[in-house]
Amino acid sequence: MWLTNVYKPGLIDSMILFPVQQVSSRLISNLDSRSQDIVAKRFGLQDGTPLTLEAIGKKHDITRERVRQIVNNSLTFLKDKIWEEKAEPSLLEFYTRVSKTLSSQGSLKREDLLASALGCSNLQCQLVFLLHLTENLFYHRETDEVHTFWANKEEFVQDALNLLDGIVSLLKEKNDALSIEELENELDDFAPQTLASFLEISKYLVLSHNRKWGLAEWPEVNPKTVRDKAYLVLKEQGEPLHFRKLAQVIAEFQHKFPLKIVKPVLAQTVHNELIKDERCVLVGRGTYALCEWGYTPGTVKEVIQSILSSSKTRLAKEAIVQKTLEQRQVKASTILLNLQDKSIFQQDEAGNYYLVR
């Protein structure tokens, strides 16, 4: 059973009532007005959009380094308020609950998914601000390899990164996406939820439309172009489709792709991409199939040539029609018309066809 992003009933019940926004506001009010504004802008507490050090520095006419100092000094001051003066007793209990949530999710969690698990999706900036005020959790900033995440202990971080390196190598070796169950069988001592949390932090790995983990660079896992989406949907459907129907299915399918960017899918765009895609073959009027299904590229005449060329014996008209209809959605009369090309096809005394050499 797939477990990632599925939280046990009751897990967030005790969290969702914690007044994240109110506690954040009360804490920040202990700072002077300039520090309040700088910290609020740095964490996005006002509008949900954190600003860079440089942007804040320009607004206050100070250097980036000075902004960093003010933020760090403010956090240190507020930590003392919380831990020494016990200014927000309920916050200490909340940190314990956060730690337990992390433990239940493999001891680390991608920041946005942690916010969801805590019932704070709409208050993620306030949650992140509060999490920066405890020394009991470890913060790992976003890099080229991983998304921002939080962990119970720093040592869990290297374990996760080492495992992810191993999974990337494994997928490259197999050259195929694997389900969470298949990954479990390949890896020892990792519970499904732990494995899922580790996978979710990686930028190199994505969950495909069919619930398998693969490399983000693989078009069949993470399609980014209309051409790759058309190929993937055709493969998923398992049968030839008219390009207009294919465009409709792609539009319905978009939310399943890792890049959940829903855009209008134009039938003509799909048609143009199918024409250029060597993986696809026209099998009828506007209808396309995949070459990997055994369909031969080319015109009806070229298909007949291929059939006769691969046959060990000369073929009767009926056999040619039957085999061609397996490859193309055309009328029998169209096939017979093509057979009349005497420069390519000839009949023997028995009426069987063969190729002109």
Describe the structure.
This protein is mainly α and about 350 residues long. About 50% of the residues lie in helices and about 10% in strands. The chain is built from 17 helices and ten strands. Strands 1-3-2 form a three-stranded antiparallel beta sheet, sandwiched between helices. The protein has a three-stranded antiparallel beta sheet with strand order 6-8-7. The N terminus is likely disordered.
**Structural class computed from helices and strand pairing:** mainly alpha
The biggest beta sheet, please?
A: 3 strands, antiparallel
Helical coverage, percent range: 40-55%
Whole-angstrom Rg: 30 Å
Number of extended strands: 10
Mean pLDDT, rounded to whole units? 89
Distance between the termini: 59 Å
SSE topology string = HHHHHHEHHEEHHHEEHEHHEEHHHEE
Low-confidence stretches: 1-16
State the helix count. 17
Order of strands side by side in the largest beta sheet? 1-3-2
Q: What proportion of the residues form beta strands (DSSP E)?
A: 5-15%
Number of domains: 3
Overall geometry: elongated
Keywords:
disordered N terminus; mainly alpha; Arc Repressor Mutant, subunit A; about 350 residues; three-stranded antiparallel sheet; 17 helices; 3 domains; about 50% helix
Secondary structure topology:
Layout: H1 13-16, H2 20-28, H3 33-43, H4 53-60, H5 64-83, H6 89-104, E1 108-110, H7 111-117, H8 124-131, E2 138-140, E3 149-151, H9 154-174, H10 180-186, H11 192-201, E4 205-207, E5 213-215, H12 226-237, E6 241-242, H13 243-253, H14 267-276, E7 280-284, E8 287-290, H15 300-310, H16 317-325, H17 332-339, E9 345-347, E10 353-355
Antiparallel strand pairs: 1-3, 2-3, 4-5, 6-8, 7-8, 9-10
Helix pairs in contact: 2-8, 3-5, 4-5, 12-13, 12-14, 13-14
